[in-house]
Write a structure and sequence with these properties.
Rossmann fold; five-stranded parallel sheet; single chain; globular; alpha/beta
Length: 167
């Protein structure tokens, strides 16, 4: 698990994305949960280039471990909805029970109306559709982190662990 390692390797494809991004110098720690390696690394590079500290995890289990180590400084959970094992919604519920003011951005390649219908955009939870640009990522992160903190721990209880459940 690399949750405490910064993204130091460069990737030519992500470098151009970072240069073209609206890079607002952010601050704070983000827990990034993405099972696709390339997307996890590119997203991490973009966020670190924008000034954020990023803890990265491939699965919900890795994210919980990272959160246990850094819960006092993590301000934002940026997670894919569909993950191996526990899904992003259940992960958000678990982390919100520990840190009720944790802000959450769900990412998904599924249409926004499916995500909205599943109750993922409630009280301090936001949505960023995939694919996203470096600019839209940094803009959404800044927007969410600048929102007043809420303590709404209500995340819909329905479980959608597999991609087929979202169709």
């Amino acid at each position: 698990m690399n949750h405490s390692q910064p993204c130091t390797e460069t990737n030519p494809e992500s470098d151009s994305m970072v240069r073209n991004a609206e890079l607002h110098r952010g601050h704070g720690t983000i827990l990034l949960v993405e099972d696709e390696s390339f997307l996890r690394e590119v997203t991490c590079e973009i966020l670190e280039s924008a000034g954020y500290r990023v803890l990265k995890a491939r699965t919900a289990a890795e994210a919980i471990s990272a959160f246990d180590d850094y819960k006092t400084i993590v301000r934002l959970l940026l997670t894919d909805v569909v993950l191996p094992g526990q899904n992003g919604r259940d992960l958000a519920t678990d982390l919100r029970s520990i840190s009720p003011k944790l802000k959450i951005i769900f990412t998904s390649g599924y249409p926004e109306n499916v995500v909205t219908r599943q109750g993922l955009q409630e009280g301090g939870m936001f949505y960023l559709p995939k694919p996203f640009s470096a600019q839209s990522l940094t803009r959404k992160v800044r927007q969410v982190l600048e929102q007043p903190a809420t303590t709404n721990t209500n995340v819909q209880a329905a479980s959608y662990d597999r991609a087929e459940d979202w169709a």
